[in-house]
Each structure stands twice: as C-alpha cells, then as structure tokens.
Design goal:
This protein has 261 residues and is an alpha/beta fold. The chain has two domains: 2-176, P-loop containing nucleotide triphosphate hydrolases (Rossmann fold, 3-Layer(aba) Sandwich), CATH 3.40.50; 184-238, 2-Layer Sandwich (Alpha-Beta Plaits). The protein has ten helices and ten strands. It has helices at residues 12-19, 56-66, 71-80, 96-108, 126-141, 153-159, 177-182, 192-201, 219-228, 242-260, and strands spanning 2-5, 42-45, 114-118, 145-149, 162-167, 170-176, 185-189, 206-209, 212-215, 233-238. The strands form two sheets. It has a six-stranded mixed beta sheet with strand order 2-3-4-1-5-6, sandwiched between helices. Strands 8-9-7-10 form a four-stranded antiparallel beta sheet, covered by helices on one side. The longest helix is centred in the last third of the chain and has 19 residues, at 242-260. The radius of gyration is 23 Å and the shape is elongated. The two termini are 36 Å apart. The relative contact order is 0.14. Residues 1-193 form the ABC transporter domain. It comes from Curtobacterium citreum. GO terms for molecular function: ATP binding; ATP hydrolysis activity.
C-alpha cells in the first residue's frame, strides 16, 4: 500500500496517469504493470470519467462487460459501494460523495491487482471515509497493490505502508511509515527537563511540551535513558502525524530552494 504525498502541482496525478497507461512518460519506462499483460487495473481520477446521462446501473454494467463480469456482479458492486438503492439514478443527480463511491465501484470491478486512487476521499462524509479504509483493507487482504494520492494525510497514514514523496515532477524519497514512526516517540515523565537534557547530552533531538518529551529516537532506547537517570515513566507512545512531518520536510526544502533562486 503506497501513498503519494506532495504539494499541489508536484506531479502526483501525472504519476498515477503514467502508471495507468494514460500518459506517456517524458523519460524513463514503465514496467511490469498489469495492463501491459492485458490484465485490468482499477483507477479513480475523480468522477470525470463517468457519463452524466447514464444511471448507476448502466455505468457499472459498462465496466462489467469490459472485464467479462455478469450484470449480477455489477449490481452486487452497487450494493458493496452503498449505491444499491439508487441504481436507476443518473450520475448527474448523484452527490459528490455518491459519484466518488460509484467511481470506486467501477474501479473495483474485475478484481484488479493494481488499484490507483487519486483523492478517493473527496466528497466522502466520515462514514464514507471509514468505508474507504475498509475498501483499502480488503484490497490489502486480496494481495492487490494500491497507490493512493490524498491531501488528507491523517487518514492516508492509517491506510498505507510506504509514503512516496513527490516534488516538482520527481520522486524525492520513499519512506516506510513504520520505520519513520519508529524514529520518534512521545514520553511522559515526572521531570521532563532532566530527560530533555539527557537526550541532548546524547546528541538525540528532543522537544518538551508540558510533561511530555518528543524524542527523535526509538521508544525502547528513550525509556532506557529515562530509567537510567531515575525518572518515572507514566506514558510512552509512537508519535503520530508521520506524513505531516514528511510533508513538512518537503515543503520546507521547496521553500528554501525557491529562496535561494
């Protein structure tokens, strides 16, 4: 499960379009993707690919025929994406959230092993976002590769294994969410100033907020330091907002680069 993050205009949607075979890359090659073997992929690029005059049922039937599925499977997909009660409603009459659900349903027909999702949570309410997490989880269990682009970094972080950071049309780096999270922890102790000083003495970056110290190190190592200097540890946890931190690093680098010009 991969997440694409980066500023607007960084090239995230373009990269997804290249992976989908819709756009030729300016340089480099695309290899070993299902459409090169004649296999279907699933792709959501908003709701721009759906004819506004067709009904929900007609939209799903068209895709099901293309991938060799039956009408019954198309209607089952409508139920799966929460649109079973509006099969006869035209796309133009659907809300933004419903159109996004329909786009996702179209993408999932054919059981694709590569699914590309560009801002799939646009227009979804909280229940819809929770449903989207379930969809990604089901795809993970089915062994599919999923690439998601979203500015909802907190939600994206709960879905993916690796973050692909894009800036100015290039992949800046690929970071494991688990590894990045493991590099930082929040620890609550009775004397945070002493822990802050101890980490500074060891060359480990740390900041303090109230009784909580955020340490740019692993939780086990931090706890060992706290215990070694006689502190009472009341709480420790892996720091959240990993993607926000990564995004901030990219944005800061871009700002500094612009300033140097």
């Amino acid at each position: 499960m991969y997440g694409l993050i980066g500023p607007n205009g960084a090239g995230k949607s373009s990269l997804l379009a290249v992976l989908a075979g819709l756009v030729r890359p300016d340089r480099g090659t695309v290899r070993d993707v299902p459409w090169q073997r004649g296999e279907p992929i699933g792709a959501v690029f908003g709701d721009v690919d759906m004819h506004r005059g067709r009904t929900v049922r007609e939209t799903l039937l068209l895709r099901s025929r293309l991938v060799g599925h039956t009408p019954d499977e198309a209607e089952s997909m409508a139920v799966r994406v929460g649109l079973g009660a509006v099969l006869r409603r035209r796309v133009a009459a659907l809300s933004l959230g419903m159109r996004m659900r329909l786009s996702i349903g179209v993408a999932l027909l054919g059981s694709p092993m590569l699914v590309l999702l560009d801002e799939p949570m646009n227009g979804l309410d909280p229940d819809g976002i929770a449903w989207m997490r379930g969809v990604v989880s089901d795809l993970r269990q089915a062994g599919a590769t999923v690439v998601v682009s979203s500015h909802l970094l907190g939600e994206l972080e709960t879905m993916i294994d690796d973050a692909i950071i894009v800036s100015r049309g290039e992949i800046v780096c690929v970071e494991s969410i688990a590894d990045t999270a493991a590099r930082g922890c929040d620890i609550e102790v009775d004397e945070p100033a002493r822990l802050l000083a101890a980490m500074s003495d060891r060359g480990v970056p740390a900041t303090m907020r109230g009784r909580v110290v955020h340490v740019e190190g692993t939780a086990p190592d931090t706890v060992r330091v706290a215990v070694s200097i006689g502190l009472d540890v009341t709480r420790v946890g892996v720091s959240g907002r990993v993607l926000e931190s990564l995004y901030g690093e990219v944005a800061s680098a871009e700002f500094e680069s612009e300033g140097a010009r």
